[in-house]
Amino acid sequence: MRKKWVASAIGASLLLGASAGVYAGANLQEITAYLNHSIKIKVDGKPVELKDEDGNPVIPITYDNKTYLPVRAVSDSLKVAVDWDNETSTVLLGEKVDGVSIDTGEELSIHTTQDPAQTTFKGKDYKLAITYAGNDSIMFYPKKNYQKLYLQIAAIDQDMEIEFKDSDTFQTLKAKTTIKANSGLNTIEVDIGGISEIWTDVSVKNGGSFFIPITTSYYK
């Protein structure tokens, strides 16, 4: 329901926040509108305060007897990813068509490696991977720009478990999932709409290890 509401509202009554940048040119039209402090917002029956990406309150706008809400503030409340394509001046809501690498430049794990002896799995060199013979904590940084995480992972010699949580609230995003030993690469799908950082707990049984190819894991 949430995704449908946002999708239908975008064409009629949503405005993108200032973070999208200013689109100058012939497509801009000056209007007279009003900040409407009397309008209250509820999500699933619960009152919410709309805020921008810096945590500042934002006020609904009334124009031509219609109410306009900032896309980014609404998407954060509904846990729907939002992004801005500056080249095409397009607001991107929800899952993206093309996957984006999880390699965003931040350190994901202290066990990230580029050593070909460690980045090769079943004869294929993935160039960049996380691998370790033991438990690990891994961080991912979608920064609220994506709706899904698709993580590839293999359990070597022993079964293992993996769990995903919102790093800010510690709310579970995906409960513990068991990966069977020597079952090849498994792809795990995690809903991450509205999530800035993901804390991932990897538990490996004694004598086992895990392998995550960074180059084939992605956000959408």
Could you characterize the architecture of this molecule?
The protein has 220 residues and is mainly β. It has 2 domains: 2-93, no CATH class; 100-219, Jelly Rolls (Sandwich), CATH 2.60.120. It is built from 3 helices and 21 strands. It has helices at residues 2-13, 71-78, 116-119; strands spanning 14-15, 34-35, 41-43, 46-48, 61-63, 66-70, 82-85, 90-93, 100-101, 112-113, 120-121, 124-125, 129-132, 136-140, 148-156, 160-166, 172-179, 186-191, 198-204, 209-213, 218-219. The strands form 6 sheets. Strands 9, 10, 13, 15, 18, 20 and 21 form a 7-stranded antiparallel sheet that branches. Strand 16 and strand 17 (172-179) form a beta hairpin. Helix 1 runs antiparallel to helix 2. It is elongated. The model is unreliable at 1-13 and 16-23 (pLDDT under 50). Keywords: Signal. Pfam families: Cu_amine_oxidN1. Residues 58-106 form the Copper amine oxidase-like N-terminal domain.
Please describe the topology of this protein.
Elements: H1 2-13, E1 14-15, E2 34-35, E3 41-43, E4 46-48, E5 61-63, E6 66-70, H2 71-78, E7 82-85, E8 90-93, E9 100-101, E10 112-113, H3 116-119, E11 120-121, E12 124-125, E13 129-132, E14 136-140, E15 148-156, E16 160-166, E17 172-179, E18 186-191, E19 198-204, E20 209-213, E21 218-219
Parallel strand pairs: 1-6
Antiparallel strand pairs: 2-5, 3-4, 5-6, 7-8, 9-21, 10-13, 11-12, 13-20, 14-19, 15-18, 15-20, 15-21, 16-17, 16-19
